[in-house]
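Lab notebook, bench 4. The sequencing result for the construct came back, and we need a structural model before the next group meeting so we can plan mutations. Quick request posted to the team channel:

Model the 3D structure of this chain.
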Amino acid sequence: SATRNQVRVSLDPELPSQGENLDEVLDGLISAARPGLMGSAGPRYFGFVVGGSLDAALAADWLTTGWDQVAFNDSTSPAAIAFEDVAGSWLKDLLGIPASASVGFVTGGQAANTVGLATGRWHVLREAGWDVGLQGLFDAPRIRVVVGEERHATIDRSLRLLGMGENSLTVVAACPDGSVDVAALRKLLSGPSSPTIVCAQAGNVNTGAFDDLRAMAELTRASNAWLHVDGAFGLWAGASPLTRHLVDGVELADSWGCDGHKWLNVPYDSGYAFCRDENIHATSLAYTAAYLTGQDEGREFGGGDFVTESSRRARGFATWAALRSLGREGVADLIERCCGLARRLADGIHSVQGCEVVNQVVLNQVLVRVGNEEETRRIEATIQLDGTCWLGGTNWRGERLLRISVSNWSTTEADIDACLQAIDRARNQDRTSN
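Done. Here's the predicted structure in token form:
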């Protein structure tokens, strides 16, 4: 109910010379923050692919903060690394990723994609006879990064961060649903070879569509390219027998990125970076220093070896707790329930005058057309101010559309119906006012 500026002006701009006691600090924190907090952990937040927090994961996160472990290696916290080991093995089993793959517990999809592309960069340059860790990128063979035109923006950002730049992109046309056109990819990869990374997407951020992972894996292997799968939320389709077909061939990739604070409903920030070869993973990211106890040669990799941070919190505890509380069947039920609720919403949209669903609802994403761009923006704002639910807009194929993502473990059919009523009210209000 408050803007950024309204919250800011409610805070004392001067740092006090004398400190306050705990009760005063917490009272001031809560009273000032409350008007500017989003209900993003609640069951009617559909604006981004954002889950809430499972009770077990939330409680584990409290313990994580209290324990305040440095999850760098075995010496800084044996428990933190051991829980990442076990939770990581559970994740691989659920998602269909090879058991031999390494797992880095990162902050989210951006960090996971950056790690995956960093490992790919190291590998394809090594295959070309270049050690990027030692020699850097100056005078290195040029890397071609092949992406679909519907890729997520974090891929481009990762390329900027990793020094490959957006000019390294070779864009492949997309099919009507946003997935990569495999025929176009085949034609592109059949040309002259060069160090190449191919990026696939498991779950288009607008339509929910999946690239053909098996076909893309076969093509990349034939051309000696590296295949990275951006599966921030879509990789979770592999956890359900009803949606597993969408990620067919996922095990053939070289690296994968996924989020925990999306569909697993673990508190922010939680993400996972997987790599088929732990030696490539660690070599491209790990480092040693004389003072770092536990970094001896021949040791078991883990923790800070697979991520870009040294000072990192113990993210494995909350993921372990979430998976332990749900079990294999519970994770599958969570995925299936959200997909079913997305279909319920799509079916209900047909009864709202002037609204139609644009995409085929294959997962948990629903795109809704409500009119021209100006009208859509007005309705989007009206729904957000109404307070019943929160959803946002997106640009898709030249249109401004409403985008609804169902990802929260606590969302019910009643919440979906309330969302439909809010859209109907906003639509009627707009027609009356304009």
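The radius of gyration is 23 Å.
Will bring this to the meeting.
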